[in-house]
Write a structure and sequence with these properties.
The chain is an alpha+beta fold. The protein is built from 3 helices and 4 strands; from the N terminus they run αααββββ.
Length: about 100
């Protein structure tokens, strides 16, 4: 019985870890959202860039880990015709629970 409980505890701990895959799945959920809804949930973007066909909305988060290393994540949403069409991420801190 103790082995089963230990195994279950380890599975739950691993499932609750923040991962890049979970972050990507979260971002996939924004595809098709109106830009106004994205801004409503993410807040004012760090920067924006407009072209003739698209708007790029960028969010940057950075910080220091408990081990003293720098982590950052830049998330850029591509807005076409007022809706989120795609996203891109860069950095070592692009993780979600």
């Amino acid at each position: 019985m103790k082995k089963i409980l230990c195994a279950l505890a380890m599975v739950l701990m691993l499932a609750s870890c923040a991962t890049r895959e979970k972050y990507e799945a979260k971002l996939d959920g924004f595809i098709g959202y109106p830009e106004s809804r994205l801004i409503g949930q993410w807040g004012v973007p760090t920067k924006t860039y407009d072209t003739l066909t698209a708007r790029y909305v960028s969010y940057l988060k950075d910080g220091i880990t408990d081990k003293g290393s720098n982590k950052y994540c830049e998330t850029v949403f591509t807005i076409i015709n007022g809706q989120v069409a795609s996203w891109a991420i860069e950095g070592n801190g692009c993780e979600a629970d």
